Amino acid sequence: MSHVKAGGTSKNNRDSQGQRLGVKLFGGQTVKTGQVIVRQVGQTKRAGKGTFVSRNYTIHAAQDGVVKFQTRRVRRFSGKTVARTEVVVE
């Protein structure tokens, strides 16, 4: 016979790594073409002038310049306008 009581299986031992999302370059910082400005899930921030969005909603710089964040009123499908942050490279 066993002299140690049987141990149960652990069920809470799975954990995924963080995705390192967020703003990588802040307002006033210089940026080069192709650099990542914001990594995000979904379109929490909009791409403005001098930027473009990749397939996973990451905002990149389309030109060299200085990063600027500004709020803009955006019309939703229902007709309601809401404030959204827009990323611009000037």
Explain what you see:
- The chain is mostly beta strands and 90 residues long.
- The protein has one domain: OB fold (Dihydrolipoamide Acetyltransferase, E2P) (Beta Barrel), CATH 2.40.50.
- It contains no helices and eight strands.
- It has strands at 22-23, 30-31, 36-39, 45-47, 51-53, 59-61, 65-75, 81-89.
- The chain starts with 21 loop residues before the first strand and ends with a strand.
Outline the secondary-structure elements.
Blueprint: E1 22-23, E2 30-31, E3 36-39, E4 45-47, E5 51-53, E6 59-61, E7 65-75, E8 81-89
Parallel strand pairs: 4-8
Antiparallel strand pairs: 1-3, 2-7, 3-6, 5-6, 7-8
Number of domains: 1
Could you tell me the CATH topology label: OB fold (Dihydrolipoamide Acetyltransferase, E2P)
Count of DSSP helices?
A: 0
Give the amount of beta strand, in percent: 35-45%
CA-atom Rg in angstroms: 22 Å
Low-confidence stretches: none
Q: What general outline do the C-alpha atoms trace?
A: elongated
How many β-strand stretches?
8
- Mean model confidence by pLDDT: 92
Strand order of the biggest β-sheet: 1-3-6-5
The largest sheet, given as strand count, sense and whether it forms a barrel, is: 4 strands, antiparallel
State the separation between the terminal residues, measured CA to CA: 77 Å
Q: Strand-and-helix sequence, N→C?
A: EEEEEEEE
What percentage of residues falls in helices of 4 or more residues?
under 10%
What is the structural class? mainly beta
CATH-assigned homologous superfamily: RNA polymerase II/Efflux pump adaptor protein, barrel-sandwich hybrid domain
CATH top level is: Mainly Beta
CATH architecture: Beta Barrel
